[in-house]
Amino acid sequence: MNSESVGSYIKSPNRRIAESLNCFCLHKARWVVPVSRHPIENGAIVTFQGKIIDVGPASELRSSYSAEIKDHGDSILCPALINTHSHLELSPLKQHFSPSNSFVGWVRSLVEARDQIRPEDWNPAISLAINEMRENGIIAVGDVGNLDVIPLLFSSKKDGTWPFSGIFFHELICPVPNGADEEIFFSAPFVNGKINEPMDIPGPSFHYSFSAHAPYSVAPQVLKAIKAWDQSHNMPFSIHVAESEDEIDFLRGGHSPLIELLKEKGHWPLDYDLPQVSPVSYLESLGLLDRHTVCVHCVQVDRDDIAILAKTGTGVCLCPRSNIFLGVGVAPSEELYAAGISLALGTDSLASNDQLSIFAEMASLSNLAPGLPPEAIFRAGTYGGAKALGISKELGSLDRGKNATFLSIESGPVGVKEVLEFLVHEGHSKVGDWVIG
Ligand SMILES: [Zn+2]
Fold it and tell me: pLDDT tens digits for 268-291?
């Protein structure tokens, strides 16, 4: 063992103390899938005080570290999953809707149903949804909401045994900020071109940020203000983009049922001109696309849009099962991947999905896009999500210095070519144990 392999993480006096107390832990298994490099057969992960110290072949690490050994047998050790896009506050609407072929019809029903949720329904439904994420191997979430029920629940759910973390995005829907509907305008935390400071989420594991709902439901000046706030607070900017054809038609100035919806809500006419271009082109023209922006969905994107997303380094969060549920189409994920765009995965809410499982999203994506290699799909559900949420220094892959929280998944005998395929296709039914170092 040379000092380089321990790196700067544990300085040698501390290392001697750790070894004398025998408090390194070496987790060995048939497979270790770090994501940042190829799967390691008969691999191991060394942990110390909640952090990963080393990853490599078990035989090498066993001779390098005096450590307590935990043998996970034929399992696969892999990073915990990241759900880059969800709406936990819609959890009381689980199984409320059937799969639809009308995006605007679903939005209309959703708004009505959300208004009917009784205050006493929030807590049990959201607690169940969070438990579902835990059972499905999800460690962090980018959760989007218009209400403040989620930050309060996140604060009260900290039990120290499962280090759930992520970002709560307070989502703004603000089509006419200076128009007639002053009530809507001032009820949002956006006043006179500035965003009010968010409420605090106690503890270090959750951050509070702002997101925009969509290019068709937030006025351009508000979109820019939200992005500026996120930038100045080192937070990612998240927005639903190109989810449906209705959105494309609307922004291009054509006939779209979104116009009727805005009329019903008293938000029509707008006090600005529609851009007459695609949602991606529009966001680029506003200066909103960069490597800290996450465009969620990107179902209705063409070759020019993909080139813009690639050029600007913008991340894309795919939500394949939600897209199927709402009948909006299938994102061109193979083309997005081929263009070098960083992909993440999200479940969206239980109002457009029947489960909160990133493994299920992976299996669905693989079936929809057979040309996507399994390593790209598994990366989207782990490192891609961590990168999109700005938490890749702690999570998303098994690397030195990252959090020692990972999954042990029963695999049976699989070869190196099949291990990632197994995770993508079978992971959903095999989610094993949490390993919390
Ligand atoms: Zn969403």
Answer: 999 889 999 999 999 999 999 999
Centre of ligand 1 to C-alpha 138, Å, is 17
Question: In this structure, are 65 and 168 located in the same domain?
Answer: no
Euclidean distance between CA atoms 230 and 356, whole angstroms: 26
What is the residue-wise DSSP string for 303-341? HHHHHHHHHHT-EEEE-HHHHHHHT-----HHHHHHTT-
Distance from Cα 368 to the centre of ligand 1, integer Å = 20
Which residues are placed with Cβ below 5 angstroms of ligand 1, an ion?
348
**How far apart are the CA of 86 and the centre of ligand 1, in A?**
6
pLDDT tens figures, 145-181: 987 777 667 666 555 577 888 999 989 888 876 543 4
Average pLDDT, the chain: 88
Distance 87 CA to ligand 1 centre (A): 6
Mark whether 376 and 408 lie in a shared domain. Answer: no
Supply the CATH number for residue 362's domain.
3.20.20.140
Distance 12 CA to ligand 1 centre (A): 47
Is residue 285 included in any domain, yes or no? yes
Q: What's the 55 CA to ligand 1 centre distance in angstroms?
A: 36
Domain of 315, in residue numbers? 81-388
Q: Which amino acid is at 82?
A: I
How much is the pTM?
Answer: 0.92
Owner of token pair 């500035």 = 194
Return the structure tokens found at 151: 């930050």
